[in-house]
Amino acid sequence: MNIIFLGPPGAGKGTQSKLLEAHYGIAQISTGDMLRAEVAAGSPLGQKVKSIMASGQLVPDDLIIALIEARIDRPDCAKGFILDGFPRTRAQAEALDSMLKKTGRHIDLVLLLDVDEDALADRIAGRFTCAKCGEGYNDLYKRPKVEGTCDVCGGHEFVRREDDRRETVAARLKAYREQTAPILPYYEEQGRLCRIDGMADIDDVTKQVFAAVDAITKK
Ligand code: ADP
Ligand code: ADP
Ligand code: ZN
């Protein structure tokens, strides 16, 4: 089963795609996480994309398409994968379809997390993750059960993303509106798009997501 999560920055793609990965045992692939790892490692790719990411712009299609093409050929994707943060442009969407075709695969479902733009600023400004295990939290919506301690691994160190500053968020939303939202009709016309009410609580969103996935696996 191959799934795409679409939605603006802060919609809940990472949160929900990790829960899907745990529930269905298919690989979660976050292009944002992959790029941040390249930046942290100081690799040639990381050096190329660092300032682009910091400004809230999209990195060039050819770089990200090559990254994904190599990633979905890895053995852990044999049972399927969940894409979080890719595709983000029409060119990426088309490249994805043609690379999957080469290996006899296709996208089964595209989940769109529908969220009011007003809600995104607080979600993004409040986002932080455990430095040790990567579990995601939020100042307003998902605090650790014990203050300062990760629910999952017991870690005490948390990190915030460089690009989650309010100044950069406007550029990221603009990129979503202008470059990513136009790919929705591409999937809608093919009958692959499923809209999820992303304004609901995290648990309610998860229920909707699992129901949408179960509906296609039982077909
Ligand atoms: P994305 O991957 O789409 O950018 P995240 O999954 O990282 O979004 O979520 C952004 C922030 O909002 C995180 O801090 C997360 O804990 C929080 N969040 C996710 N889903 C919800 C929700 N349904 N309601 C409130 N906060 C949420
Ligand atoms: P968010 O979770 O807030 O939607 P991501 O972690 O997915 O953000 O992406 C962070 C940054 O990484 C983006 O602002 C962009 O610069 C870059 N990026 C991630 N995925 C892509 C992609 N598919 N195409 C172009 N740039 C990307
Ligand atoms: Zn942790």
From TrEMBL:
Region of interest (NMP), residue spans: 30-59
Main location: cytoplasm
UniProt xrefs under CDD domains: ADK
Key word Iron present: no
GO-annotated biological processes: AMP salvage
Pathway assignment: Purine metabolism; AMP biosynthesis via salvage pathway; AMP from ADP: step 1/1
UniProt-annotated binding residues for AMP: 31, 36, 57-59, 85-88, 92, 161, 172
Compartments where found: Cytoplasm
Keywords, alphabetical: ATP-binding, Cytoplasm, Kinase, Metal-binding, Nucleotide biosynthesis, Nucleotide-binding, Transferase, Zinc
Chain residues that bind ATP: 10-15, 127, 200
Family listed: Belongs to the adenylate kinase family.
HAMAP family xref list: Adenylate_kinase_Adk
PANTHER family per UniProt: NUCLEOTIDE KINASE
Quaternary organization: Monomer.
Protein name (Swiss-Prot/TrEMBL): Adenylate kinase
Organism (species): Gluconacetobacter entanii
This protein's encoding gene: adk
